[in-house]
Amino acid sequence: MYQTTHGPHLPQERRLVTEIPGPKSQELIKRRSEAVSAALGMSMPVIVERAGGGVIIDIDGNSIIDMGAGIAVVNVGNSADRVVANVKAQVEAFTHTCFMVVPYLGYIEVCEALNELTPGKFKKKSALFNSGAEALENAVKIARRFTKRQAIVVFEHGYHGRTNLTMAMTAKNMPYKDGFGPFAPEIYRMPMAYPYRWPGGAEACEREALDEVLHKIEKEIGGENLAGIVIEPIQGEGGAPLAETANAAGILIRSGYDPASVTSFLNLPIQHTGAAPVTLRDEAKSFDLKYIPNEDMQEAAIECFKRVLKEQKDLPEALVHRTLFERAESYALMGKKAMAIKDLEKILVDEPNYPEVDKKLAQLK
User: What average pLDDT does range 126-152 have in this prediction?
Assistant: First the structure.
């Protein structure tokens, strides 16, 4: 029944030889309706016989442009030669062992490749799962187990999967969630920094979104209860808006993540989209060290503040003062009172009337 021409060797053309669906597809679609659950939808009413490159060939011989790509996963086209060759080699060697029972080279190589691609100089390790939903389920379990906290923050417009937990994390009711509750608890949804549709306008989006999210985390959830944050730097289901980098960095850093790791994480997808990466100035506006749990992270934050003051000459005076004040708080948390007092006194040279600084100085002295 199936022809041998396959993959990228198929003619890359749109060609209709029957109506859609053709008679053979109509016959199999009827069998489908009798045998397959009605819960599974069907975007294109044809039955595929072959596919390759950017086309799908149905059983009636129609060549249709493939706009779905397996829902954006067949990135090199269907049945690419190297993929076919490697799949054949693998199934000839063995089909399955379960990596946790008997490990194998391919799993290790994929993890090594992922670790290499992830930016940052810190140590990285990976685990592989069958789907995005399963990966998120495990990420949440790991975060909760490690932090001994429960709350997970997600964002408007986000899509995360169709398991009970990831449905709770997903923002869109139809077609994913309607009628399937109740959902997993301790999931908190925050406004997404979406400049194009932000009520206060694009210019105010970064600041207002960050302020609102941090207020909700600190006041409604409690930063000490936060296990993790799930954010899509590029939202597919939400219409492909880019996350405002300072918004994402600020939330992650204030929640106890290493600032250097946050910057690397955010730059990973953004480097290839044309969006500006996280800047020192954005990072400086994002720190709140009472949620950073160890000295190494505090040191990293202080280094960032130093770089801001040294390298970003265009900072408004008010932001310079704020940066100095936040660095002073960092020093104070680390027990370096003299350094904290020095930063606070620098502020008073320019701005003698600064009650917040006076109050902090009184506490330190």
Answer: 89
